[in-house]
Structure formats: C-alpha cells, structure tokens
C-alpha cells in the first residue's frame, strides 16, 4: 500500500519549487 508515496513526492516537489521561487524573488529584491 504505497498510495501516500506519490502524494508525498508530489508535495515535496511543489514545496521545493515554491522555495526555489521564493529564493529567486529574494535574490532579485537584493
């Protein structure tokens, strides 16, 4: 029963993408 595995991977990917976007925005503000 690895139903939550793909969900966790997708959530992780989304969080990583958001964190990268936030970091890029912070760098641009500098």
Helices, strands, pairings?
Elements: H1 4-29
Total beta strands: 0
The largest pleated sheet is described as: none
| Helicity range | over 70%
Q: Count of DSSP helices?
A: 1
Taken from the alpha-carbon principal axes, the silhouette is rod-shaped
Question: How big is the Rg?
Answer: 13 Å
Give me the secondary-structure category: mainly alpha
Distance between the termini: 46 Å
**What would the average pLDDT be, to the nearest integer?**
88
Order of helices and strands: H
User: Which stretches are poorly predicted, pLDDT < 50 over at least 5 residues?
Assistant: none
Strand share of the residues? under 5%
Structure overview:
By secondary structure, the chain is an all-alpha fold. The chain is 87% helix and 0% strand. It is built from 1 helix and no strands. It has one helix at 4-29. The radius of gyration is 13 Å and the shape is rod-shaped. The mean pLDDT is 88.
């Amino acid at each position: 029963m690895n139903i939550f595995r793909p969900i966790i991977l997708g959530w992780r990917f989304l969080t990583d993408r958001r964190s990268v976007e936030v970091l890029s925005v912070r760098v641009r503000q500098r």
